[in-house]
Amino acid sequence: MKDRAIVNEVGLRDGLQNQPVTVGTEAKAAIARALVGAGVRYLEPVSFVSPKAIPQMADAAALTPLLPRDEGLGLHYTALVPNLKGYQLARDAGYPTVALVLSTTDTFNQRNLNMSLEQATASCEAIIQAARADGVATRTYISGAFACPYDGPVPVTLPQRLTERMFEAGSDEVAIADTIGAGNPRQMKDIMAPLIRDFGAERFYVHLHDTRGLAAAMAWAALDLGVRRFDASLGGLGGCPFAPGATGNVATEDLVYLLESCGLDTGIEIQALREAVALAAEATDRPLGGRILTWIESQEARGKQITL
Question: Does an H or E element contain 102, and which?
């Protein structure tokens, strides 16, 4: 039996939040249906944030009831929340898991949350406490774990200390996030090896952007450490309005190809993902697609039958 790997699709949230073309609620719902049809079972489709700050997420409450129902599929939905008010909205909308954001520097937290590092840490702790009381699971993103978009490289001890503090507060999971795609595989091992030793690989996600072309190498480094949970975005959509220089997330189809070709089971069909990518490309009015889709298209143009 193949080892299982989880791919958490964040395209509808992280992928769309910085897109200049407003994507309608119905179009988002159609993309979600196509993703689920391709075998995606973990999705982070919304964030309950200020619509003035991130207009693309203004329809979070309206989109939620339009998302595919579980109906025995084993769907797992997560909503990102920046503060206690956002948490309450997500809880009331029925999300069983919420994702919190804690950036590694004062500057990044000020730009992202209008809080200092210590204030943002305390806010996360308060949300975790409220979620535990309500029976809602929590995943905390350590954003800018490899480098801050404003202050530059981050010492490995900083994301490690913040991770330890979030677990002490009761966070169920932590996602180590290369928010601007500035990390490298050596950093991945330096940051995560001690954390995995102390807390177990099963409690970690890895969130990668492919700004400098190292996302696949960093995913492999995390895999080698035992991590089996990854964020990805269909077609490579992505970018953060509060992180200058951040380009797209690692493409879901590329990550799935990496995992499957290495013998892991994601449950996701790359060929079926093409429909979701096409819908997202149409909705955002821009070309999308990971490297594996470019290769597939080149082979099809030569009349070759592709089996993945």
Answer: strand 97-103
Three-state DSSP class for 43?
strand
**109 belongs to a structural domain:** yes
Q: What contacts 265, CB < 8 A, 6 or more positions away?
A: 2, 3, 4, 5
Residue 259 CB-half CA count within 13 A: 31
> What residues have CB less than 8 Å from 92, skipping those under 6 apart?
none
- List active site positions: 240
Structure tokens at 249: 């997330």
Question: How far is 127 from 251, CA to CA, in rounded Å?
Answer: 30
CA distance 162 to 109: 13
**CATH number, residue 99:** 3.20.20.70
Domain containing 181: what range? 3-301
State residue 18's pLDDT score. Answer: 87
d(CA 57, CA 287): 22
Number of domains in the chain: 1
**Phi-psi map region of 64: left, alpha, beta (phi>0 left; psi -120 to 50 alpha):** alpha
Please check whether residue 203 is in contact with residue 229, taking contact to mean a CB–CB distance below 8 angstroms: no
181-200 pLDDT, tens digit each: 999 999 999 999 999 999 99
Residue 98 falls inside a structural domain: yes
Could you tell me the pLDDT band of residue 240, with boundaries at 50, 70 and 90?
A: low
Q: Which residue has the higher pLDDT, 244 or 49?
A: 49
